[in-house]
Amino acid sequence: MEHTLKILGKASSINVRKVLWTCEELNIPYEREDWGSGFASTHSPEFTRLNPNAQVPVIIDEAGVLWESNTICRYLAGKHPHHDLLPHEPAARARVEQWMDWQATDLNASWSYAFTALVRKDPEFQDAHRIANGLRDWNQKMSILEHQLATTKAYVAGPRFTLADIVIGLSINRWLMTPMDRPDFPAIDEYFQRLAQRPGFLKHGCNGLP
């Protein structure tokens, strides 16, 4: 009998929400436990035995323990191959993973300082010059996404909804909810409206959390 998936991490975490939205798309039942700021400490020995990085999310199923949100999403999609979230054909799959990796590295690196300053209001992240540079870099990365979406006229990796849209859709929500000046990106606006038709996005993406 298949074990129920257990997800460790608070529901407000953007990385936990990637996993929750993926589960919604795949109709995977799960149990979730609150871990992270405001809840059980991820720095406790109990948690770091599962993830030495002390970060959420972590999942536990019959195969064991797994961490890193984008990897978890890939794993869940691969475990349920009847769905098109992660294509089997190598080139199509690589295009999806290319944009997932871009989200986790280039895009995340661009917003890290400015988001921490403007939304989390961390007193150690209040250098005006670094905030301005961060906002400029963030918008520049979003211009790359704007060009891609203007080209596909559908979803990030092509004509079909994939895992790339889950991780990037949440990143767009964060960009839109951060108090900052943004360029006019019509392709991103249209794309965001397409995502808003999906129940998983309404539940875990466009939910008032940046």
From TrEMBL:
Pfam families: GST_C, GST_N
UniProt name for this protein: Glutathione S-transferase
Superkingdom field: Bacteria
Domain GST N-terminal: 3-84
Family label: Belongs to the GST superfamily.
Location of the GST C-terminal domain: 89-210
InterPro entries found in the cross-reference section: Glutathione-S-Trfase_C-like, Glutathione-S-Trfase_C_sf, Glutathione_S-Trfase, Glutathione_S-Trfase_N, GST_C, Thioredoxin-like_sf
